[in-house]
Design a protein that fits this description.
By secondary structure, the chain is mainly α. The chain contains three helices and two strands.
């Protein structure tokens, strides 16, 4: 994890890596792995974070060169991406579990109705 903040914005970061980090932070509305403080050890400058850490309607970007645009850390999303990703996975699992329970209940109801109708069918056919 220290590799991400050490490379991002530095000379070792590839454009694909920077784009990936920016996309994650923009779409999940998070900042850094653990929050805005995650970016303190980078070359962005004091109190600065990647522009993707801040809402679109934030102040204009500073140092907008080659994907290294920054914004003020005070305007950044407060949550880290690890926490937000865990929350998204937990939400998805909750929805999945609810869907599975509903499907199982539906199948049990169908089995009960099938058993009930089988009994009625046998009475009619033997008469």
């Amino acid at each position: 994890s220290s590799g991400i903040n050490a490379e991002y914005g530095g000379t070792d970061a590839s454009e694909e890596d920077q784009e990936t980090v920016n996309n994650i932070q923009t779409h999940i509305t998070c900042c850094g792995l653990t929050g805005p403080d995650y970016w303190k050890a980078t070359t962005f400058g004091v109190g600065k974070v990647p522009k993707s850490c801040c809402p679109e309607d934030d102040q204009p970007a500073v140092n907008a060169t080659a994907g290294n645009a920054t914004c003020a850390a005070s305007n950044a999303y407060p949550d880290g991406c690890l926490t937000k990703a865990n929350d998204l996975v937990a939400q998805a699992l909750t929805i999945l579990i609810i869907a599975i329970v509903v499907i199982i209940l539906f199948q049990v109801i169908c089995m009960i109705l099938a058993c009930c109708s089988k009994g009625e069918y046998e009475e009619v056919s033997t008469a």
